[in-house]
Specification:
The chain is α/β, with parallel strands linked by helices. Helix content is about 35%, strand content about 25%.
């Protein structure tokens, strides 16, 4: 949760992205505080994925400003984003299925011995220490990740991000296709990340997951920000009204809410 009066971990101000004549993101401002989960929600084409791609470096904005810890930064590539502590965990997880957890955590950044060979034991030790912090129940360190459950695979993807000093995590549909037990596992992972002060932008289509995980909810519709609300101050119906008809809780009528329920 955010600390009152503190500087946002991330602030994206007046972001704009257009594809041809279509304004995918139009003058959107959102922020994220240390240890907070902000859900970005909206229907297909709302612009949430495009907005977050400007932070991950996958698609630079046409205009707008990004601040990290109150300092303006320039992000033109995923490398820029990673250097600033921004990591993205996509729905596909981008894991190498044929290798184990330590090899995935250090993929592309392998530890080596003084002779230049892979230091498998050092990578395994470091991964075990990291998992003890993030997910103490994880034990299948030497199993190819293809044989892990969805929740365990999510753990490996998160560990890879955190090991290299991510302070800002973008999580794209982390609960998709998971069973109840696996969802509980990912929920605990997210809680442990929050305790470490990591801020999380959560993209989700599932309103129940949003209410389960988020501290605040930012709703987009047709490229614009409808508004950002504290999860504890709104009902699911009020958030659905923001998503579908673009009205804030104080603007929506009881009749409109009834129609949404019907």
């Amino acid at each position: 949760m955010q600390a009152t009066g503190s500087v946002p971990l991330v602030e994206m101000r007046n972001m704009n992205v257009a594809f041809g004549g279509v304004h995918a993101v139009a003058d959107v401002t959102v922020d994220l505080y240390p240890g907070e989960v902000v859900a970005l929600v909206g229907g297909n084409g709302a612009g949430k994925s495009t907005l977050i791609r400007t932070l991950s470096g996958a698609h630079p904005a046409d205009s707008g400003e990004i601040y990290i810890d109150g300092e303006r930064v320039t992000i033109t590539s995923p490398r820029d984003a990673k250097a600033l502590g921004v990591e993205t965990i996509y729905q596909t997880l981008a894991l190498a299925d044929n290798i184990d957890a330590p090899s995935n955590v250090y993929l592309g950044r392998e530890l080596r011995t003084r002779w230049g060979t892979l230091d498998d034991s050092a990578m395994e030790d470091a991964t075990r220490k990291l998992m003890k912090r993030l997910n103490p129940g994880f034990t299948r360190f030497l199993t190819p990740v293809a044989f892990l459950s969805g929740g365990q695979r999510q753990s490996v993807a998160i560990a890879r991000a955190v090991e290299f000093n991510a302070r800002i995590l973008i999580m794209d549909e982390p609960m998709a296709a998971l069973g109840m037990a696996e969802k509980a596992q990912v929920r605990e992972l997210i809680r442990s990340l929050q305790k470490e002060g990591i801020g999380i932008f959560l993209i989700s289509h599932d309103i129940h997951d949003v209410f389960d995980l988020a501290d605040r909810i930012s709703v987009m519709l047709q490229g614009r920000l409808v508004g950002t609300v504290n999860k504890d101050d709104v009902t699911m119906d009020e958030v659905l009204a923001m998503i579908i008809i673009g009205k804030l809780p104080e603007e929506v009528t009881e009749k409109e809410l009834e129609e949404l329920r019907g």
